[in-house]
Structure formats: structure tokens, C-alpha cells
Amino acid sequence: MRTQVAIIGAGPAGLLLSHLLHLSGIESIVLESRSRADIEATIRAGVLEQGTMDILTNAGVGARMKAEGALHHGVELAFGGRRHRIDLTELTGKAITVYPQHEVIKDLVAARLAAQGQLLFEVSGVQLHGVDTATPSVSFVHGGEAARIDADFVIGCDGYHGVTRPAMPPQGREDFTRNYGFGWFGILVESAPSSDELIYARHDRGFALVSTRTPTVQRLYFQCDPADHVDNWSDDRIWAELHARLESNDGWRVNEGRIFQKGIIGMRSFVSTPMQAGRLFLAGDSAHIVPPTGAKGMNLAVSDVNVLAQGLEQYYRQGRDDRLQGYTDAALRRIWRAEYFSWWMTSLLHTFADATPFQREMQRAELECVVSSRAMATALAENYVGAF
Ligand code: RFL
Ligand code: PHB
After folding, report:
1. Which residues contact 23 (CB under 8 A, 6 or more apart)?
2. I need a surface site. Which of 48, 65, 137, 214 has the fewest CB within 10 A?
3. Which residues are catalytic?
4. Nearest ligand to the C-alpha of residue 42?
5. Residues 248-300: pLDDT tens digits?
């Protein structure tokens, strides 16, 4: 097989890149290790920045997001028994949309297939060859048969645990990592939303987050030990913990309902640089991870491939590669802003096992500053909606 751009991974990064390239008349093949049903059912992100919505809309894949996504003009910070609203729209002129990542995936898969895009599911043994030459290739197994794609470029969109980052030449690489030592326990609940807007709560027992999915499904999270197991958490224990962390002086309580999905994720910050070497480029979670507190991961994946698609378009249309050469620098400017904000939100709202009493008071004081100072609330709002 021969194509212009071989893309590894059919997450938001890989699928959107393939679609943007198609709109510019550039051919690609996407290789995905999981099945279509699996990628369309994996529960992950929920919050889309205005810029992400604009990119999806301009690419012609925003219709269902607009119709079914919920526009949110504010978020709430809860601590000390009180909730404080941060008015995103008043402070920034922008809003966010809650629309599940797997719905974005469904929209992108449908768009690729409608345009006869080549999407190969359930491939295994992906290996990269000659990425430091002008004729890279990818070998893999599909439907029990060994296969190979010759391409001009290989793009690693295969997430944090993929094979493309380890295939980067080691010289000159620098990785930046922060492990937080805690995770999030996430549940999906059959019940009406408890709140019109997301609630980020700080409590001495740990962080909790009230999010939504649809008018009949809530998405809730609480800070936990990343080594804990979902089987240790009965539904009753989960509700007791959530009620304790979300306690409110005004009598508000989170709505209970049937819990139909439980999972634990670890929290880390990670950036791997540079994001390119020769004809191999990384985009999305394959190059960087943020803790989910800032709701930035999918938004970064989208902005990375938007920059990369412009570089590839310039290469094929004008025969110039200065945009491609500048990809890492252009992408990292936004990535480090999002890394900073995600780290800051995480530090502000979680309990840290090694925090001294002084540090705990500083955290409480900082929260008071954020909700009482318009300047600090504006900084949070600008970062949250991605106005940078
Ligand atoms: P993905 O989505 O991980 O996709 C990578 C794809 O590559 C495939 N793959 C391979 N394919 C072929 N060969 C191999 N060797 C392969 N290895 C892997 C995988 O099967 C997969 O299909 O990466 P991408 O595209 O970079 O997208 C990143 C986002 O998925 C991620 O950043 C977000 O989900 C993060 N995130 C959030 N981001 C937001 O913007 N807003 C949020 O509100 C938000 N909330 C979250 C989140 C992530 C969460 N979890 C579960 C980590 C909430 C949670 C709980
Ligand atoms: C979600 O709805 O899954 C979600 C919302 C906000 C976050 C993280 C996850 O910060």
C-alpha cells in the first residue's frame, strides 16, 4: 500500500487529522488497534473549548455537537460548604460545550467513511521503518495478513501507551513528568443532572467533580488512590463519599441513580520533546498528558493536529516545509499553557498526602482569592475556555 500520510491511532487526534488532510486533498491511511465498536464506546473526555468547537464546525463535523452538546456559560467551585460560580462568558466572552469524546469519535468515523477514507481497525504489530529517511514505512498485521504502507510522513496519534513515541530517535530528547500520587474514580449514573453547570469541589476528604453527559446521565468523579480497585467500592460507599465531599450548607445534594460504569485513572503531567524527528511527528496524548482537572486533553489533541495539518498542507501545496519544521515550537506554546493550568487546577483542588497544615491553609486561601477577586477568576476562566 502507498499513501501520503500514514496515521497511527484513531482517537480524536488521528481521525481529525485524517479528515483535515482529506479536506486539503491529501491522502492518508489510519491504523487502529481496537475495533470500531470499542473506540466508539470508550468513555473519556467531556469538555470542548470554543476553539475546538470552531475547528470541528469548520471541518464540517460539528452538526451533531451543536444540536446535542450542552453549552455551559459558567462553572462552580465548591469548598467550605459553599458553591461559587465563575461566569465564564461574562469574564471571557466565551463558553464551553459538554459533548462526550466518544460522540466526537462517532462523528469523525462517519465523516471518514462517507468520504471513502481508509480506516483499518484491529491492526496489530505496528512497526515504523526509515522515519529518518524521505521514504518511511509502517508494517503491521491486519486480518491475519502481514501488510506494509509506504508513506511520505508517519504521524503518531496512538496515545500515551502507543508505539510511535518509543520509535523516536533518543538523542536530543527531553521528557518532563509529574506524578501526583492520586487518581480519579469516575462513574456514569442514570439520573437527571444535579446541577446545570460543572461543580469542582475541594474537601478535606479529597476532590470531587460533578459533570453531565445527557439529560438522563451524570458523570461524577472523586479523588482516590490510583492503586485502588473498583470492586472495593460498593454503590453505597461511593454515594456516601460523594455526599460527604459535596456537602453544601444550602441543602443541595447530588442526585443518586443507578451506577452503570466505574473506572479509575491515574493522574500525571507529561511532555515529551521534540514532537518530531525526520518524517515522524507526534500529536495528542502520544506526546503529552495533562491531569483531567483542567479538561484540556482532547482540546490539545485537536489543536496539535490543526497545526500539523496546516504544515502538511503547505508542504504539499507550496513545496515548503517551514511550517512543518516549526510544528514542535508552535504546538508546545499551547501545550505548556495547558500543562500549567491543569497542574494549577489540580494543585488547587486536591488533597495531597504530604501537605503540611500550612500548605493546606494556603490552598484554602488561594481558593478564597480565586472566587473573590475578579482578576483571579478571569485568569481561571480564560484558561478554562482556552482563550490563549
Ligand atoms: P487517544 O484518544 O488515546 O487515541 C489513541 C488511539 O490509538 C490507538 N492505539 C494504537 N493503534 C494502532 N497501533 C498501536 N500500537 C496503538 N496504540 C494505541 C488506541 O487504541 C486509541 O484509539 O489519543 P488522542 O487522539 O491523542 O486523544 C487524546 C484524548 O483522548 C485525551 O487527551 C482526553 O480523553 C483527555 N481527557 C479530557 N480531555 C478534554 O479535553 N476534556 C475533558 O473533559 C477530558 N476529560 C480525559 C477526561 C481523559 C480521561 N481519561 C479516561 C484518561 C476524563 C478522563 C476520565
Ligand atoms: C467529564 O465530563 O468527563 C469531565 C469534565 C471536566 C473535567 C474532566 C472530565 O475537568
Report:
1. 59, 60
2. 214
3. 72, 200, 292, 296, 384
4. 1
5. 999 999 999 999 999 999 999 999 999 999 999 999 999 999 999 999 999 99
Residues in the chain: 388
Q: How crowded is residue 96: how many other Cβ atoms within 10 Å of its Cβ?
A: 28
How far apart (Å, rounded) are the C-alpha atoms in residues 127 and 83? 51
Supply 155's cell numbers: 504521524
Instruction: Please indicate whether residue 46, judged by its CB atom, sits closer than 6 Å to ligand 2.
Output: yes
Q: Which residues pair with 251 in a beta bridge?
A: none
299 contact partners, CB below 8 Å, separation of at least 6? 47, 48, 49, 51, 52, 338, 386
**CATH number for the 5-46+100-173+274-345 domain, one of 3.90.1310.10, 3.50.50.60, 3.40.50.10420, 3.40.50.1100?**
3.50.50.60
pLDDT tens by residue, 311-345 = 999 999 999 999 999 999 999 999 999 999 999 99
Q: Atom 30 of ligand 1 has which residue's CA nearest to it?
A: 298
Are residues 77 and 368 in contact, defined by beta-carbon separation less than 8 angstroms? no
**Mean residue pLDDT across the chain:** 97
